[in-house]
Specification:
The complex is a heterodimer. By secondary structure, chain A is mainly α. Chain A has a domain at about 185-260 and about 310-400. Helix content of chain A is about 70%, strand content about 5%. In chain A, a hairpin with a 5-residue loop joins strand 1 (about 160) and strand 2. The chains are: A mainly alpha, B mainly alpha.
């Protein structure tokens, strides 16, 4: 049993590691793909060179991120079977078809049009190239749709029966399974998170270049667009997150109890614990700073509404409180910091100082990684918060793992850690190098870039031709 | 089941995905295997450019094969993947290494040699691991109840190593023929000189695997060598022989596209042979496709999606290949 526990914990660590690394990339590509579609659309509509240059600038970054997303994603599609085979056998008849739809409707679409998007503009012309960009952007969205439906079904399973060999099989219609109770909220929350992540990454790159040269047209444009997104999407995300939280309270109350640090029930109004140190042994939050009754107000919209605590949940069904409590606060804190930047940018914009306030630019630069951290913290909250189950309330994580020896899982975990840090570490370094290049008119054009006559840098092949004249006009 | 056996249809769809994967990712993995032999500079850039726009789509068929197996035959997915744990993890890491090399080698000219090495190492590891996976599946897997019950080295046998090497030779040949088709000049001449030797190597490998296979399982022996089945099965080696002759003739005539298609033919026949051995099992000798099948509702739901989407996918994939038709230059696509 000890041996078995070790193997399962190693498998959990491996899944957490590979999925966390993986999700950083789609969280970015979902956003950049849409951003690129907007940029190319604006270029085609207005003919302004600044959009073409920004498109080319972000396309190079997109290509690197996308490649990392693809290869780390293939790993995920096999991890279900290699490490969680019992789960795959039992849940396969329900989640398998949803993932197959993801492959059929999203992965092929992205991969099929990516080649044209990166290399094909001079082969297919601008209009078809724009179609390819749109197809890739739509593909990232469809991919998120299906995989979040799968994840949501695992959190809020509906529409199934259990057959005589213990498999979850579809019993109601597929519509109910796909649109399971937590799915719309998780989809909305995750897509907005991807847009915010991208907005703050783009904003930080713009801010960096504005700090060096506030007249740079490309930097101004990307910073302005990013700050519009921050100002509009951050409040929308806080609203969406609240809805998602209420949905979680309805379907996975133990997760919300852990998020709130409510070890005990509060029959007449639960406090909102801002900070504190969860103490699971004593079942209390030490050094808590709390606002009386505010939790009941947020979750039940009534100061005196009773809220149940973890004392109503059997110990063996409780999630680990400490991790969930902290990851939730990290996500929330960053969310409000994003809102702050968004409002600050609105103030600057209203005073026509958007490009002139270096402290705003410094703050935006600091917030560059905020989306990535918030997205990971959010996923940690929801995934650790639904423990100890893989299919919520029905299939335990400890009963889902593959029959593997601990040394096999330990060796593979080590291999993943080494390869991911080397490969994706290098990739992230290249992203910084690309983002450090000054955008805009200083982009090399075909004539003064001899390197490309010897070999192509993939994304640089795009939008060649008439850029130089268009920038000049 | 309304007269139509969805399980058979799904076995066909997954077999189709595997065949398309082997053909398409086969040639781009093959280019990775051959890569160190190409001169640094324009030759390597040309070889890379010839697959850069399509490799991602090619690899997606592997995800469809794996995802389709989970969806249509969850029990098989749940047994095979843990049984082949080490080679599959190695394959995934190999695909990571080679996949990022497509972008990274352009991003970091100072370390291009390192990413070229990663491209080759990843391609070789992924190919060898896929070959081992195939051999390990053919030689049989220990099962207890609904789970794999062997150790984590059970896959490692002389036979699985043989299939690993066979696939290396096969993918290298496909990559070589792809470059004959897509390039010209010194690189093409180099590939012509490799193709003949790789063809001979592959035929030896096919021969060795074919001779060894019937002795792995009684089921294979009776199917391949007992009368009257042998009358049907003998057509496969016969066809292999004919295509081999045509392949070498096309090489000596310096034809450009046809060697690639004859090489595909050799692959196709090997895969048909694999089908003859396995049918109707998904795990040979242990689990049939019907035992592993997902319920009717799952298979039907997916069939609607596959029926609509696969033709569309094939259409736009064909379009993407059409866009990048013709000879590739080292100066890329502008």
């Amino acid at each position: 049993m000890m041996e078995n526990d070790l193997a399962i914990n190693l498998a959990r660590a491996q899944f957490a590691f590979t999925v966390s690394f993986h999700f950083l990339f789609p969280a970015f590509t979902i956003g950049i793909a849409s951003y690129l579609a907007v940029l190319e659309g604006l270029w085609l509509k207005t003919g302004k060179g600044v959009y073409a240059n920004l498109y080319r600038y972000w396309l190079k970054i997109f290509a690197v991120v996308f490649a990392m997303g693809v290869v780390s994603g293939i790993v995920m599609s096999y991890q279900f079977g290699t490490n969680w085979s019992v789960f795959s056998d039992k849940a396969g008849p329900i989640i398998g078809p949803l993932m197959a739809y993801e492959v059929l409707t999203a992965f092929f679409l992205e991969a099929g049009f990516l080649g044209v998007m990166l290399f094909g503009i001079n082969k297919v012309g601008r209009k078809l190239h724009f179609v390819a960009t749109l197809a890739v952007a739509v593909g990232t969205f469809i991919s998120a749709f299906w995989i979040l439906s799968v994840n949501s079904w695992m959190q809020t399973p509906v529409g199934f029966a259990i057959n005589d060999v213990g498999q979850f099989v579809p019993a109601a219609g597929w519509w109910d399974i796909v649109w399971n109770p937590s799915f719309p909220y998780r989809l909305g929350h995750t897509l907005l998170a991807a847009y915010l992540t991208t907005a703050f990454a783009v904003g930080a790159v713009g801010a960096w270049h504005l700090l060096k040269d506030k007249t740079n047209l490309g930097a101004r444009k990307m910073f302005s667009m990013a700050m519009w997104m921050a100002a509009l999407v951050a409040p929308a995300q806080i609203f969406m997150g609240d809805l998602h939280g209420l949905n979680t309270l309805e379907h996975q109350p133990a997760k919300v109890m852990a998020m709130e640090g409510h070890y005990q029930s509060h029959p007449d109004g639960a406090p909102l614990i801002l900070f504190g140190i969860p103490n699971s042994k004593e079942k209390r939050v030490d050094y808590a700073i709390e606002i009386p009754k505010a939790s009941s107000l947020i979750l039940k919209h009534d100061l005196n509404a009773p809220l149940a605590g973890l004392d109503t949940i059997p110990d063996k069904d409780e999630p680990p409180v400490g991790i969930v409590f902290w990851s939730f606060r990290i996500m929330l804190g960053l969310g409000f910091a994003m809102l702050g930047i968004g409002l600050w940018s609105l103030l600057a914009r209203s005073r026509k100082k958007l490009y002139d306030w270096p402290w705003l630019h410094r703050a935006a630069l600091m917030m560059g990684p905020s989306g990535f951290i918030a997205v990971l913290a959010g996923w940690v909250t929801t995934e650790v918060g639904r423990q100890p189950f893989t299919v919520y309330g029905l299939l335990r994580t400890s009963e889902s793992a593959a029959p593997l020896d601990a040394p096999a899982v330990a060796a593979s975990l080590l291999a993943f850690v080494v390869v991911y840090f080397v490969v994706f570490g290098a990739g992230i370094l290249y992203l910084f190098k690309l983002a450090a290049k000054t955008p805009g008119v200083h982009e090399p054009t075909p004539d003064d870039a001899p390197i490309r006559s010897a070999g192509i840098t993939p994304a640089a092949a795009v939008l060649d031709g008439d850029i130089s004249e268009r920038v000049a006009t | 089941m309304n007269g139509i056996d969805l399980t058979v249809i799904w076995a066909g769809i997954i077999a189709f995905a595997v065949v398309v994967y082997v053909i398409m990712d086969g040639f781009d993995l093959g280019i990775g295997i051959l890569f160190p032999n190409f001169k640094v500079g324009p030759d390597r850039d040309t070889a890379m450019n010839s697959i850069a726009p399509v490799w991602d789509g090619n690899e997606t068929w592997l995800v469809l094969g794996g995802g389709g197996l989970l969806a249509a035959f969850p029990l098989a997915y749940a047994i095979i993947l843990p049984a082949l744990y080490a080679p599959l993890i190695a394959m995934l890491l190999g695909l990571v290494l080679r996949g990022v090399a497509f972008e990274f080698r352009w991003r970091d000219p100072a370390h291009r040699a390192r990413w070229d090495f990663a491209f080759t190492a990843g391609s070789v590891i992924a190919t060898f691991a896929q070959g081992i996976t195939l051999g390990a599946l053919l030689q049989g897997i220990t099962i207890e109840g609904r789970a794999y019950a062997g150790g984590w080295w059970e896959w490692l046998t002389p036979f699985s190593l043989l299939t690993g090497f066979a696939l290396l030779a096969g993918y290298a040949l496909l990559g070589c023929c792809w470059l004959i088709w897509k390039t010209e000049g010194p690189l093409q001449r180099q590939c012509y000189s490799y193709a003949g030797r790789l063809g001979i190597l592959l035929l030896f490998a096919i021969g060795a695997v074919s001779i060894a296979t019937p002795f792995l399982e009684a089921q294979y022996y009776t199917r391949w060598l007992a009368y009257p089945g042998i009358i049907a099965t003998a057509q496969i080696p016969l066809a292999t022989l004919i295509i081999s002759v045509l392949f070498f003739r096309s090489l000596s005539k310096r034809q450009q596209a046809t060697p690639f298609f004859y090489a595909l033919g050799l692959f196709g026949l090997s895969l048909i042979g694999l089908g003859v051995s396995m049918w109707p099992d998904v795990i040979p000798g242990r689990v049939t496709i019907w035992e592993a099948a997902a319920p009717y509702e799952s298979q039907m739901f997916m069939l609607v999606g596959a029926g609509i989407m696969v033709p569309i996918i094939l259409a736009y994939t064909a379009w993407a290949y059409w866009v990048f038709r013709g000879k590739v230059g080292s100066d890329g696509y502008h």
